[in-house]
Amino acid sequence: MSDDSNLVLKADSLQVESPPIVLASQSHTRRSLLESAGIMVSCRPAHVDEAAIKRACRDHGHDVDTTALTLARAKAAHIKAAGAIVIGADQMLSCNGEWFDKPADIPCAREHLMRLRGQAHVLHTAVVVLREGKELWRHVARPRLWMRTFSEDFLDRYLRLEGDAILSCVGAYRLEGPGLHLFARIEGEHDAILGLPLLALLEFLRGYGVIRG
């Protein structure tokens, strides 16, 4: 990703010039959500050992919300940006007490979707905001989604259509794409399903004075 650490705000921006905002992620979707709301951010990848963090959280008996927040905080803490607001986010999926990770390959994605078929699951979408290493705010949104009882023929067609694009998605679907066909019912903020609880985050940023209210 190109260096965008010197972004220039428009004169009529809703965002104040300082402090800058850094998104601890390479997620195009999360960046697009913020920029669509008029929030300019620089994006920096946060390389953390997610599997090790999840194992440690399980060993300590943490629930899914706490684990998602721990991951989000670890990502934000990985970024060193003097004076900046750093946003870390993570998303986990739980269904009937089971935690789901991103599928390793297409057969794994198929297995995940067969286990989720006809069931309701929750996306635990966590966001943590740090500044100079100090935590300013944290939040978890919990949209709930009901997968319909689709046929295996449909599933195979869906997997061929989406291909490797779903391997970066927890749950093996993109709700902003053909993955919408998997569902019978959805409750919760659409942005939180995509990976960032934007309404709550914007409310915090207004209260902190980063966005003009």
Descriptive overview:
The protein is α+β, with helices and mostly antiparallel strands. Helices cover 34% and strands 23% of the residues. It has 7 helices and 8 strands; from the N terminus they run βαβααββαβββαβαα. Strands 1, 2, 3, 4, 5, 6, 7 and 8 form an 8-stranded mixed sheet that branches. Helix 2 crosses helix 3 and helix 4 packs across helix 5 (152-162). The chain is globular, with a radius of gyration of 18 Å. It starts with 20 loop residues before the first strand and ends in a 5-residue tail after the last helix. The model has no long low-confidence stretch (mean pLDDT 93).
Cα(first) to Cα(last) distance is 31 Å
- CA-atom Rg in angstroms: 18 Å
Q: State the major sheet.
A: 8 strands, mixed
Strand percent estimate: 15-25%
Task: Jot down its keywords.
single chain; 213 residues; alpha+beta; 7 helices; 8 strands; globular
Q: What would a concise description of this structure say?
A:
The chain is α+β, with helices and mostly antiparallel strands.
List the helices and strands and how they pair.
Blueprint: E1 21-23, H1 28-36, E2 42-43, H2 50-59, H3 64-78, E3 85-95, E4 98-100, H4 106-116, E5 120-131, E6 134-141, E7 144-147, H5 152-162, E8 183-187, H6 190-194, H7 198-208
Helix pairs in contact: 2-3, 4-5
